[in-house]
Amino acid sequence: MVIDIITLFPNMFQGPFGESIIRRALDKSLVEINIHNLRKWTKDKRGTVDDRPYGGGVGMVMMVAPIAEAIEAAKTQSSKDAKKEKIILLSPRGKVWKQEMAKEYSKLDHLILICGHYEGVDERVRDFIDEEISIGDFILTGGEIPAMVLADSIVRLIPGVLEKPEATQSESFSNFQFDNSSIGKLLEYPQYTHPEDFRGLKVPPILLSGNHGEIEKWRAEEALKITTKNRPDLL
Question: What confidence score (pLDDT) does residue 43 get?
Fold first, then answer.
């Protein structure tokens, strides 16, 4: 997969993409991530990317021309077969990002992420994209952090990235399986490791029993309790 990110702040991506799972995916050549400075497609010496909104209003709006040209350049320069391609604008107006979407996007050949900024983008930018995505009902300074979130959630699902691909099967928001049946999308059950007793806080005895059937039943019950308490909307 090739991911092209169009941004005004390319240096923001150096740390997050230089560590952990994304770094390993890059090293294995399972993903190629290109960070593009939007100012490269501006027409003046200052690299102007925004202007005052028609009709008046507070703040500045990102202009359509640099963004459209950056998208066209990214589509042309994609180094891999891009039969499955999506162009995404990160915006509070978009669909809220879900795990199911991450799974779908992990099958793409090419993904272009556009990081909005200021008071938003010229509405005509939306004629050049496939979808608009938000990571939640809150406002951030720009689309850079949401772009990192999407990239991380997608890349870890690409085959070969995780050493144990089955690790994604019992995570929060995945279909929880018990007794060969799906009981729906739940938050993940509690996890414990050594020591068995820490300052009087003990590992539940069932996890030490060796009875895998009863352990799976306990995990399903606990996942349901946690989901009911924290995210009843998932049920």
Answer: 87
